[in-house]
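Before going further, learn to read the protein records used in this course. A complete example follows; check for yourself that the lines match position by position.
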Amino acid sequence: MKKIIIIAVIVLLVGVGAYFFIKTMDSEPKTPNQPQPTPIVTTPVVPVVEEKTETVIGKSVEARDITAYHYGNGDTEVIFIGGIHGGYEWNTSLVAFETMDYLKENPEIIPDNVKVTVIPVMNPDGLNKTVGTAGRFAAADVTKTLAETIPGRFNANNVDLNRNFECDWQATGKWQSRNVSGGTAAFSEPESQAIRDYVEASDPAAVVVWYSSAGGVFASSCHNGILAETRELTKIFAQASGYKAYEEFNFYEITGDMVNWLAKEGVPAISILLTDHKNTEWSKNRAGIEAVLKHFADKTTVTETSTN
């Protein structure tokens, strides 16, 4: 019995010693070389802001979108407009679509200081009357004769949009030898309002508008003389394209004209009249577009040099 007690005491003492030995080891400080746990680093998620490449600037009478497409990121905006006379001048929309394709495929031609905006179909209801769509189309899609496309010149209210702007506006305007509606007031039509509002908001450096057909580059004015920049742009586009330059459109009296309203507002604006109602004369217009863009790049360079 005494031997059993002695053995139990020894076992107890050994257990107590082992406990204090382990406790002492746990309480010892870790050496500097001991590996530390790797902290978890969370990288913040930065939202990607996509560049805005198109803007719906308004709706037509029949609620079709009027869309502006943007190329480049500069502060100097140059606007190109086609299709003001819808399906009657459908080739002006085609040349605008060709311009969009060219800018997308050749972004290097846009100077760093320039943003190009293209509005290819200003009169979508009129284009739809002739082509059956207000969107992209090909020349082969147009099967009507020129006489059959005349209703497509006007919007769904039967208003000639190029008689609906605020320069010599009249309720009854002239187109060649016939009378046409200029609307109930200047800017009575949603399509004209869309252009007015966009121009006033964007304050462009210049506006180029395609029409057909006469084959020429025409300056703008509204009884205030031709702006110096308008005169320069007329010369630049004409020389590059091979079109003849004109200081005014005087084949017949026009009222409520868009480019003349732009001149009234102090915005340099020129009209490019294609030679006929079918062809886009792309090589001519490409040369003119490139010359205009180069003009604004060179103009900025000269301004910065003189400032420095």
Observations:
- The two ends are 111 Å apart (CA to CA).
